[in-house]
Amino acid sequence: MPKNLAARYHPPAHRGIRPPAMRESGPSLLDLARQTQAMRARTAQFCPRDVFRDSAWDMMLELFIADQQRRPICVKELILVSGESATSALRRIDRLEGAELLQRSTDPADHRRLAVTLTERGNAAMTAMLRQLFLTKGEGSHRGAEVRPD
Predict the structure, then answer these.
(1) Does residue 99 lie in a domain region?
(2) Structural domain contains residue 47
């Protein structure tokens, strides 16, 4: 993969972008998803990626962030985000779709491409996981903070 194309698909920490700063009113779910994505990228610097890989989580994070930004994601982009071979990533996408967490549809702008989006169930699952990770009362720096839905 060419360097300029690969840079587009690496999480923000690989591009030297820091996660957004916490706002006085508390982090948004988008902020928390970006922070989680950046943390996963930092982990990859210290541990072999193939050992600590969870491509389903990486895909779901990317889809959640894209959904919050109202940005389309195509199957090819999701494959690149996963860090797996195309065959393995497509199997993972099939499983996530079978679990009704994401859906594929023809991209209205280009009928040759398939767009991937979170389903309502997938969005609810990601929202619940991010809240559980960061916003459970009484523990950690973000826990107990109000979250903005963004």
Answers:
(1) yes
(2) yes
Judge whether 75 lies within some domain: yes
Question: Per the domain annotation, does 106 fall within a domain?
Answer: yes
Cβ atoms of 106 and 115 closer than 8 Å: yes
pLDDT digit string (tens) for 1-36?
A: 444 434 444 443 333 333 444 344 677 889 988 888
Among 78, 38, 86, 40, CA closest to 59: 78
* Structure tokens that stand for 125 in this block: 């699952």
CB 149 within 8 A of CB 29: yes
Residue 92's domain comprises 27-134
Calpha distance 83→116 (Å, rounded): 17
Q: Which long-range contacts (CB under 8 A, 24 or more apart) does 107-111 make?
A: 107/72, 107/74, 109/72
Domain tally for the chain? 1
Q: What is the CATH number of the domain that holds 50?
A: 1.10.10.10
Q: Are 68 and 30 in contact (CB under 8 A)?
A: yes
The pLDDT tens digits for 56-110 are 999 999 999 999 999 999 999 999 999 899 999 999 999 999 999 999 999 888 8
